[in-house]
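Closing statement on the (2S)-2-hydroxybutanedioic acid sub-project.
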Amino acid sequence: MNRLTKYLTLAAMALPVAATADPTGCDTGEEVLKFSVVTALQGHPKGEAALAYADYINAEMDGRYCVEVYGRSELYPDDETLFQAMLDGDLHFAAPSFAKISGYAAKADIFNLPFLFDGPLHVLEFLQSEEINQIGDQMSDDGFAALGYISNGMRQFSSTVPMRRPGDAEGQTFRVSSSSPVTAAVLDIMGITPMKLKFSEVYDNLANGTVQGQENTFANIQKMGFYEVQAAVTETNHTYIGYPMLTSQRFLDSLDAETRAVFLIGAQLITHERNRFAFELNQISRRSIIEDDGVVLALSPAEMQAWRDAFAPVLDEFKPSVGAEFVDAAIRINAAADPYN
Ligand code: LMR
């Protein structure tokens, strides 16, 4: 273990990591509330946030409510069944990626616009701004309430061919997480055919060659082992994965004002606390990939510029459909962000 990895591992150990949510740990008489997650729980930005929220509610609401967290798509995949389960009252909390909610909230496609943000800490400033609530507002038309926003990190491309330039994987098929026309336009520039698959299906379809590449954060690539069946992960940081933390408006409305405040304030506290560690968890995953003999290709400034130049037309094309004012607000926040001070 080199010094950086050791430092990051120790730093992560020092985080207020929640104990494992034990699905059998609820007491008799407590109302069980389910939180469904498709990613890993421990050591993953979304999983850790969900566990921390469960710990918070289980302490504050002891004897009344008990939140159980299920990871790795154990309960629901991130597809229509998840949203329907929330509306039906079978599921109480979920955090599908922004990419997966664009059918409900067109503005969520902002995070598929390539190179809109300079990095995950810049995105965090946007997540902490009032602007982000426009996405939650769009979700509310369909009966959902965004309790907060959980951060993961920037997407990287991986493929069975080591990629340094946008055209290096031309002719291949890449797994995508949504039917976003923005993502399709990006892949089209690369000469790549998109294939939508559930998160739980990605590893097997990479392994059997149905798809030859994908895009994801280091945390997702490492926790799901995607790098094991790819020649290299190219550090493009081209788009961002984060999550609205959702419940149904019906569930919130069923609570008295004091109880509702506990659920709302808890989400604000936990997302604020956990999002500060999302970058570190992705860095730990990056190091773990390399230490497990996975290949991470870092790009030179000139190589990065070639990706930026290639994808530049996508921003102009999709800015109107995402919302020009919304995108301009993100551009302003990104430009003014000073995340290291
Ligand atoms: C994916 O499907 O690749 C991601 O959205 C999974 C996740 O929840 O981070």
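The chain has two domains: 3-152+242-284, 156-238+290-321. With this model delivered, the sub-project is considered complete and its resources will be redirected to Aim 3.
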